[in-house]
Structure formats: structure tokens, C-alpha cells
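Quick log. Single chain, no ligands specified.
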Amino acid sequence: MQEPNFYIASLSDAAPRAALEGEISADICVVGAGYTGLSTALDLAEQGFSVVVLEAERVGFGASGRNGGQICTAFSKDMDWIEARAGRDGARMAWDVAMAGRALLLERLERYGIDCDLQWGYLHVALKERAQREMQSYAETLDRYGYSGCQVLDKAATSQRVASDRFVGSLYEPLAGHLHPLKYARGLGRAVEAAGARIFEHSPVIFADINAAEPVVRTIRGSVRAKHLVLAGNAYLGRLVPYLANRIMPVGSYIVATEPLGQNRADALIPGNEAVCTWAFIPEYFRRSADGRMLYGGRATYSGWAPRDLGAYMRPRMLESFPQLGDTALEHAWGGHIGITVERMPHIGRLGPSSFFAHGFSGQGVVLSAMYGRLMAEAIAGRLERFDAMAGFKPVIFPGGPLRTPLLTLGMLFYRLRDSLR
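-> predicted structure:
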């Protein structure tokens, strides 16, 4: 999609990198210059591997550069489900991996001097009493895993943090938050190149020999022969590898940005400057930008259909939460795809002897995608414990074959109805 993306508009235009021309070789070929691919490339380049990154568009073009910027905790799937699936030890490993992802984010922002408007504080807000009860249970689960400091807030306390009458309560997390996602992606790209890796933009991959001991990857005008291949295109990988395409679904997600509101008005909407997300299967999410706009996202589509007028599509939801913004112009409206799995757990693994992949972060990609990139780098370097643990969460194929999109759309209609009643 080519809607005017606020994140792009807020930055000076970066000089484009060259496209791949001719035949080259490397230890590692990474497909995709989002958080996952850049994270893998950075770790391996710093260990002395020769690394080539191929990007079909620009660094951060996909979900990494157009998402809501929300730094979330753990996984989209709750820890009770993970524990039932993997046992206590497996669940603890998964939790530790997720927490290591947050630590990795902080480490890299500091180490590489990436200024991306980082802000701590996160509110899950409830639209119904049942959701409020579920958040209380979730807070108890977090406490069981040693994640302390969360507060369950009633309607009055919630209205002090979010200037809206829509929400009956909330759960506050001090150790989640938000950032400018494209600044983060571009910062990782600079760090990757400083470590000695090469990034080629406008180099879409048209063929990947995933079963070879030394995979060959072809673009329109060049090719890379590598000792290891990393597939990190997520929802933008298309049908390049059918095995992967059948296990994730690209889901459309949309965001609008208002005109600058002025500091006093912006502060009044969310006084603590937290990221906010509704407690729902199909959530809405919103936050303030560093220059005092309201960024409001959600209203996911599962059918492949995209609204022709994103502003008209999103504005009613924003006004339902903040009717006081009725006189405010929308300056930006954009969308893109995230990758989800059936179980809403990320999918990581190996294809053939030398090809690795990670995808399907299901709305938690700001933290998890870079961490899963690190897991692939660890596996390539011979450290398999965390990679193997997370590879144990194997998603099922989306049901329905050629009917999977309409079936998923019908399923999402059920969840929209359930959200409205809970």
C-alpha cells in the first residue's frame, strides 16, 4: 500500500541503497530487511560472517516500518495456553525468550544510538466487564512469572489515564510502551552496515533453493550463493515458499494520524503518554506521537479487501474513543500486513539443511521479531537450545485450501461479535 505513512513523512528521506546486480556469494543470505532479517544479519555480521540482505523495497518497508509502534509483553497467546502446550519448563523458556526480546531492544537502542522516541507505559483497556475480569486473571499470570508492577484500574482511575468514557477499566504495565517503528528499523539497518553486512534494496527474490546444502537465491538482476539462507519476509514473502505461505495469513491493519494537536491538548488525551490497546481478539490501539498527534490503529481486515478511504474507515472508531477530536483533521492514513498464525504463536524453524525462517508474530512483532532473528543467528552459529525450544511451537496449516480466506473472514466475524458482547 502507498498511503501517506506518517512515519515516512516524519523523517528525512534516506538515500536508496543499490539493487543487487550480478552473482555474488556470502556466508549468509537474508531475505527481508525488517526487524527479523536485520536482527539476524546484525548478530551474524558482528560474529565475523559475511552477510548479504535482500530487500524487495526499502529497509523497514513492511510491518516493521508501518506498525503501531507498541512494545508488548510476551505473546499474543496467553501463558496458560503455552504452559498446557509445552509444560512448565517449556513455558518458562518461552517467557524468558520474550523477556530477552525486550532486553535486546533496549540493548540495541543504547549500543547503536538509535533515537526512536522510546516511551514506557502501556494500558490494556476493557470495553466490557468480562474483559476487565480477564485482565485481572492475566495480571495474576504475569505475577506468577515474576513480572511485577502491573496495576488493575477501575473506570475512574482509567479515565484519569485516558480521556475517554468508553472504557470500564484497564490494566497498567510499566515495562511495556511504544516507539517510532521506522526510526528503529532504519537504525538497525545502519548498525547492520556498520558491522560489515551488505543490504541491497529493490531486489525482490523470485527463487530460493531452500533444500540445497548451499542455497542459491535469485532476484530479477542477480543471485546469491550462501552457506545459510534466512527467510525473514513474514507477511510480505508471498508464495515464494509454499510451506511458509500455508502457515501464516497476511492480515490488513490500518492507522490514522491526526494533525498536531498542540502539547496541552495531546497531554490531556493520554496524560501519562502510555501506549493503549483494547482487550479484544481484534483490538484497537492508539498512542500519542512525539510531535503531539493521535495515532489510532486497528480495524483489521482478513478478506484481502482494503478500504478505499482509510480515513473514513478509521475515523469513526477514533471518535468513538475520543469524540473531542471531532474537529480534528486526519493528515495521514496508511495500512499494511501483519502475519498471523492459527494459534497466534510465532513460527520459527528450519527448511532443508541450511535454510531458516521466522514469521507469524501475530501483533507482537516489535519485540519478538528481532528476538527471533537472534534465535536464528544463534542456531546458525551452533547454539540451538533456545531455537529448538521455540521451534517446538509448530502451527497448523490454515484450513480450507483455496477457501481459507473466506473461512477466516467468517471466523473473524464471529470474534468481532464476541468482542462486542464481552
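Confidence is low (pLDDT under 50) at residues 412-417.
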